[in-house]
Amino acid sequence: MAIQEQLKKMILDVLPDVDCVIGWGPGPDPLRGSPFFMRKPEDVESFMAGPMAVQNPALFLPEYKGKKVGVVVKGCDSRSVVQLISEDLIKREEVVIIGFPCDGVLDVAKVENALASHGEPGEITAVEFSGGEVKVTLAGNTHSLKFDDVKADKCGRCAVPNAVMSDFFAGIAREASGVKDDYEDLAALEKMSLEERFAFWENEMSRCLRCYACRNACPMCVCRDHCVASSRIPHWISQADSTRDKLMFQVIHAVHLAGRCTGCGECQRVCPVGIPVLLLKRTLSKGVTELFDYAAGMDTESKPPLLTFQVEEATIKERNW
Amino acid sequence: MNAQNKFISRAKLADWLKELSSRFEVWAPRKEGEGARSVVVYRPFEAEKGLELDRKPTESAKHTMFPRSETLFNFRRNLVEGAPSLELEEAADPAPRLVFGLLSCDARGFQIFDPVYNGSGTNGQAKDTYYLKRRSSTVLIVKSCSKVLSTCFCNWVGGGPASTEGADVLATEVQDGFLLTPVSERGAAVLDSSLLAATNSDMESAAADSQTKAAAALPAAPDLKESQSALLGKFDNAAFWQAESSKCLSCGACTYLCPTCYCFNISDEAAGYNGVRLRNWDSCMMPLFTMEASGHNPRTPKMGRLKNRVGHKFSYYPSLHGGRIACCGCGRCIKSCPSSVDIRRIVTDAIGFTETVGLKEQNNG
Amino acid sequence: MANENATPTPTYEPGTRNPYMPYVATVVEVVTETHNIKTFRLRLDGEGVHEAFDHKPGQTGQLSVFGVGESTFVINSPPTRKDKYIQFSCMRAGEVTTALHGLQAGDKIGVRAPMGNSFDYDAMKGKDIFFIGGGIGMAPMRTLLLYMLDNRKDYGKISLLYGAKSPEDLSFAEDREDWLKRDDMNTYLTIDKEAPGWEHKVGLIPHVLEAIGPSPENCVAITCGPPIMIKFVLQALNKLGFKPDQIVTTLEKRMKCGIGICGRCNIGGKYVCIDGPVFTFEQLSQMPNEL
What we know:
The complex is a heterotrimer. By secondary structure, chain A is of the alpha/beta class. Chain A is 29% helix and 15% strand. In chain A, helix 2 (75-86) links the parallel strand 3 and strand 4. Chain B contains eleven helices and twelve strands. In chain B, helix 6 packs antiparallel against helix 9, helix 6 (227-233) crosses helix 11 (343-351) and helix 7 packs across helix 9 (302-320). The N and C termini of chain B lie far apart (51 Å). Chain B folds into two domains: 6-76 and 88-217, no CATH class; 227-351, no CATH class. Chain B is globular, with a radius of gyration of 22 Å. The longest helix of chain C is centred in the C-terminal third of the chain and has 14 residues, at 227-240. At the B-C interface, strand 4, strand 5, helix 2, helix 3 and strand 11 of B face strand 4, strand 13 and helix 7 of C.
């Protein structure tokens, strides 16, 4: 039985015991999937897993605190669930986790960019996946793209294709590619001088609309309705439309995520104006990995290093002791 | 109006915009960002940064008329012992603008602003002087759409890919350039350049042909006149709104990309004794939007906020403004929504004819 | 090809007053009413500006503390008593009210007023009026009450029930003394729990109201206070036989522009800043339920 069918069966089994099961369903066009909340058995018919399972459904779990919900997770999503549990933002017993072996998800922007010379990507009428290829029908012509070229960046460095933790798992766990995350995406930025780097961010942030999709799409961004971005007491961020204040918010967001960010990349994916905000979080994640040999969202018992304190950290030798 | 249609070649377009820059602050769409992250945004025209007229702009042209942040006035406090004084200085008048290459839907968006900002449409008679000054000094050159996206629905709400409503000039792409049709007097007045050429009958028929084709590519428009009563009828239906809003992140992407969302906040930023009073874009999707000083918030949880966004566009605004729907069908809120929330689907669900308009296949969750 | 029927672009008419520019005013006097309510008496700066100012009972204004921001309050002095000042009473709750509470006589303040609708005091002529106010909710009603007392012959029996948690939470001490003394109105004061030296009623406002038992005949009830009080006052008035169109209240909403544009204070198609703040319960019952 195909993974998707196995998952549907598991969801139907879980459904009577939960408020809803969160997964993925069809979106407004063939290229765009959608988070999908299944409440009735007939809803499950439209459930979709696979390369269209783009969004991170763990995001919604804290809204359902106090109720029991089911969630279908990719490996990366499961790390968010684990991190939420470890920070007591959700309760383990209130969530039923359904995992499956993930082969990577589509980056809609990459598909649109790859086909830009063939017409407006919004005219896409069909998308099919078969054997490492994506066949996209645009303006009456079908174009074949290599899935590896249009999958999300995070999938290329994925070490966790299966759920870290699950109550049910569809199919057979997939082996990780063995690729080590060498933070290659940060290399260009790290080579820049401080002035160049600041200019890079000023240029990128000049597009920011302050819609805060990045913040609201982050499963670990927990202040929600009490965000420093709009708070007047304390008044840390000006309401003026300045790139520096916008960057200031991004830096605060990133620092609060140091050691907590699981790298799901939703902040960057959802940015309507294409600002690479994940680079800030990845910069901090790299530091946390190097200093503390720690990865967030792998173990519900572990605590993020910046939420704990040790008089002497094994890898920090600030006084050359 | 008797003014003649004109032709501007792609090769001379930048020169023409440069020429117009001596009379106007010219804004036009250009590409920004790298590779797959690139987007099309409206910016003050800089010839060396190029133009992007082949992809539809990611954002609307709203900020060319209604800045994301604008100074209402400056204040200076003088705390002299015994005689404190206060000076308020109104922001300077805006320079005349010309926006080249906005879409028909963008231009129609400003028409949704107009009755609210000129005090004609509600009980409030106040005229928003900042908006009106910019509005009356801005020339809009609309580029008609030759392509229709899956998220386009301008024809549902009275528009079309080559609608001239709100435009001063309509630019239609033809071989190697654009056919320029003056729509208003001030539009005709910007077509007096020697860089523009006379049109010929081939161009005229090519332009007419492209406009007809684009209009025909839009799916049939359902009749939305019931949206006003249908959305009010669903106001207290929590199950309906919970289902429609489950996947909504309650971010402001939809409202800030929208050509018709006109809400704002007013706040002060001070440095020492001096400072500014600012008007900034605000969004009914943000929880603080309606948070009262007492801590009470009439629109929490998030379903109340999505309900207001849809309700305002398709019910409350039309009830105040002669039935006109406060949506121009550009589809940006759908295309760029992190969670694929589809406003068309919410409205047709409320009216109860989602299946008839062919949106059944997608599931709103 | 030009669209002859196109809506014309709105034009800016020079000389139009900028509705966002506040009048500058001077704080004449600050009265400490309770531990968290202060009253500010203001006079508009500039020759003839204060004299030309005109408002109706129930209308609101926006007060600015420059550098902090602007908030909406009801003007709680009547037009009949504005020679020396106009008055606002503000409960300390957020950033702007905290800054307001730091003001002293002589300080400069911004005022945008008057805004919104008013009590329909003409339609109330010849009727009995029963005011029911809780806490800071007394502020909007004070304007109308004083206005009616200044035009006493136009109205029937005037009664006031004003309550707060404790004696220390009651505002308008000077007014209260006057109201209690007057023989052309009935004044009932109440506090939630017994307190030493308290000579008036004890009990929650809705209970006291029921015990007083005003007749709905030719009477208008005007009520303002916290939402939970309003809820139970409505039930009590309902029991006493008052119809929704005989009950008037003022609404609180977060407001910014105050002129029906910025979009945050709507209840369906009504904007509280311009269509309100005064509504009858008959009107509210026809609006979406989003208080």
